[in-house]
Specification:
The chain is α/β, with parallel strands linked by helices and 110 residues long. The protein has helices at 31-44, 72-81; strands spanning 19-24, 49-54, 63-66, 87-90, 102-106. Strands 2-1-5-3-4 form a five-stranded mixed sheet, covered by helices on one side.
């Protein structure tokens, strides 16, 4: 059974949806399969919107980007769905920040 993601109403910044973007390099063997697997797991866990996007560059290590402190429970829940559990990187100082509730997952290129 897939553990659920925290409900949006527990997020103090917003009442909107969970928006998850998975990035991967299509030239990396297995990356597309991992992105689809994780997208399915996150959707089953209750993510409102999961988008899979390709990038034309190397991703050094799999990680999650969190842009708001109040999105920490969501980032932690997403990390727990990863195999192995994925590092969360603090992007709260990034500018311009995306909309609250957006979490990015970057899948290593190898």
């Amino acid at each position: 059974e897939v553990p659920p993601l925290p409900p949006p109403e527990k997020n103090a910044v917003r009442d909107g949806p969970h928006i998850l973007i998975l990035h991967y390099n299509p030239a990396t063997p297995g990356a597309a399969d991992e992105a689809r697997r994780l997208a399915d797991v996150l959707t089953a866990a209750g993510a409102d919107q999961v988008t899979v996007a390709t990038v034309p560059f190397t991703i050094s290590s799999t990680h999650i980007r969190q842009y708001y402190d109040d999105d920490a429970p969501l980032a932690q829940a997403v990390a727990a769905q990863s195999e192995p559990e994925t590092e969360i990187r603090d992007f709260t100082g990034y500018s311009p920040r995306p909309a609250p509730g957006l979490i990015e997952i970057w899948i290593a290129s190898g």
